[in-house]
Amino acid sequence: MNYIEQLQQLLSREQVTTNEVLRTQHGKDESYHEPHLPDVVVFPKTAEEVSKIVILANDQRIPVVPFGLGTSLEGHVIPYKGGISLDLSMMNAVLEVRPDDFLVKVQPGVTRSQLNKELKKYGLFFSVDPGADATLGGMAATNASGTTSVRYGIMRDQVRDLEVVLANGDVIHTGGLAAKSSSGYHLNGLMVGSEGTLGVITELTLRVYGIPEKIIAGRATFETIQQAVDAVVSLKQAGIPMARIELVDKRSIEQVNFASDTNFPETPTLFLEFHGNEAGLKSDVIFATELLNDNGCIELAFEQDERARNQLWELRHNLAYTYIHSAPGKKLMSTDVVVPINSLPDAIQNSREKIESMEIDAGIVGHVGDGNYHILLMVDMESQEEIARAKELNEHVVEYALSLGGTCTGEHGVGLGKAKYQQQEHGAAYIWMKEIKRLLDPNNIMNPGKIFID
């Protein structure tokens, strides 16, 4: 009896499939990385079932690759060693809302929008917004962030506890319900961002927030990137509690206008959002307006209407898809680096000069409040020349970020695409990361080939 038949006995035939269409769906993500099919797709319903699957896989040295919705951008869920694609979509229950503790307990297949729909009943919301409607298990696995991280923090900041199935089948909890603890190693921090290489997340306890009384969005345009980033530094130094500060460069604004029938000035633009109460926001907006104007703001517009605000952020979130629709048949490559905020203008200018010298059509956007920026470009995967040029640009951007003391990835994760930079970025610590991997997964069955190139 082969291992697939054994899986069907452990679970049910409906939960274990070798259907080629489903295998194809689970052999790719939204990245430009080459697809590769798993041998089988398995749909567990409980942590106990996950444990049984992993025990069988560990005994027989079968790779296990956790799968959420496939929205990752660095090849995280592509099973290059074959084996089991462990689809957690059937584990999609909001298990408990604790409004007085500002906590929620969910299964890994719950999506961000699904959670916020449930939380709205309690006057609460979950803050991490990566743009894609990703699963919370996947967001924790890659330590996702997004537009709101400048105020509320990244995924790692929201995780109070995780239930994790380790490679030997053991089920552990990495935290608790308390707001803080000085007890033991910080296992939440170890598991968040581990990309399925140390275990399978089967439950999450997450921090949530009260829905702000008042929200105001704004759009500020500048002549130069330098002015825009200087304005961001001024806002942060002044202590204004910004919820979002997003930079969209001239090329990307052109793309927005073309695709969305808007008529925004085609210059570097900040998309802003303020959260607070009526009285506090009024003074924050007045002060912010003064600072933006002092830094050369050309045009400033605020939106208080919910529909108008949502439209503004939809334009920002859908920018990647705008590029995708502009080039049918090509794949999107999105770079992802973080540099110290003071170095951001130099880094973006360096990237723009490289883009123009290579005659590549690409836009630059970023979560400038925390120094994170992306280059969006479309690549013809049938053209080796285009692939090579895109990789050259990506490598240049990463190398420059690392030279400034930055990181090769701020939110997309390492996966396959950023594995080659780990030694350079982490130095001797990289060796100890590999030792942790060997200790927890000695047979290398958990998402093999990701993060560690050897």
UniProtKB/TrEMBL annotation:
Give GO terms for biological process: lactate catabolic process
Record-linked InterPro entries: FAD-bd_oxidored_4_C, FAD-bd_PCMH, FAD-bd_PCMH-like_sf, FAD-bd_PCMH_sub2, FAD-linked_Oxase-like_C, Oxid_FAD_bind_N, Vanillyl_alc_oxidase_C-sub2
Write the Enzyme Commission number(s) for this entry. Answer: 1.1.2.4
What residue stretches are annotated with the FAD-binding PCMH-type domain?
34-211
Cofactor(s) this protein requires? FAD
What PROSITE patterns does the record tag this protein with? FAD_PCMH (PS51387)
Query: What is the protein's given name?
Result: D-lactate dehydrogenase (cytochrome)
What is the source species?
Solibacillus isronensis B3W22
Recall the taxonomic lineage recorded for the source organism. Answer: Bacteria, Bacillati, Bacillota, Bacilli, Bacillales
